[in-house]
Every structure is written in structure tokens, then in C-alpha cells.
Amino acid sequence: MKLIGYILAASIVLAMLRVTLAAIVAVYLLTLIICAAIRPKETFGFLVYLLVCFMLDHHLVATLVTVLAFFIVGTVMKSRRDG
């Protein structure tokens, strides 16, 4: 009987953790939406930063090549605009 009680208690704790995690995710998404409405440039820059960090962790060479390509294209576009 004690084993059933422990299993039931563990199930309740896991359910509470799941609800807590869902609430944290909901608050995070709401904050992200509000920030995107107030400061879209900074918010999307942060999201791009997170994406690059994720990509560096999983696909190092592809990410470095992509970042280098964006840097080259940006430099060329800036030199054409300035000069």
C-alpha cells in the first residue's frame, strides 16, 4: 500500500511540475509577443541570436559559412550604398 502511495505522490508532483512549466512557457510567450510589439528590432535580433547559438551547437560548419555569407553580402551592400 505504501508503494501505491509513493507512486501517487510522485504522479501528483510530476503533474504540478508540468503545470508549472506550462505556465512559465505561457508567460515567456506573452512576454515575447509584448516585446515584439514594443521593440520589434531588438526582439527579432534576440531571436536571431538564439537561433545562431542553437545552430552553432548543432551545425558548426554550416552556421559559420552562413554567417560569413551574410557578413560578405552586408559588407558589399553597405559599400555600394555608401560609395
Put the structure in a nutshell.
This protein has 83 residues and is mainly α. It is built from three helices and no strands.
Polypeptide structure, described:
The chain is built from three helices and no strands. By secondary structure, it is mostly helical. It has two domains: 1-38; 40-83. The mean pLDDT is 91. Helix 1 (2-38) crosses helix 2 and helix 2 runs antiparallel to helix 3 (60-82).
Beta strand %: under 5%
Gyration radius over CA: 23 Å
Q: What is the residue-averaged pLDDT?
A: 91
| Global morphology | elongated
- How does the helix and strand content classify structurally? mainly alpha
Percent of residues in helical segments? over 70%
What profile does the largest beta sheet have?
none
Distance between the termini: 82 Å
Poorly predicted runs: none
Instruction: Count the domains.
Output: 2
Note the run of SSEs as H and E: HHH
Topology:
Blueprint: H1 2-38, H2 40-58, H3 60-82
Index terms:
single chain; 83 residues; mainly alpha; elongated
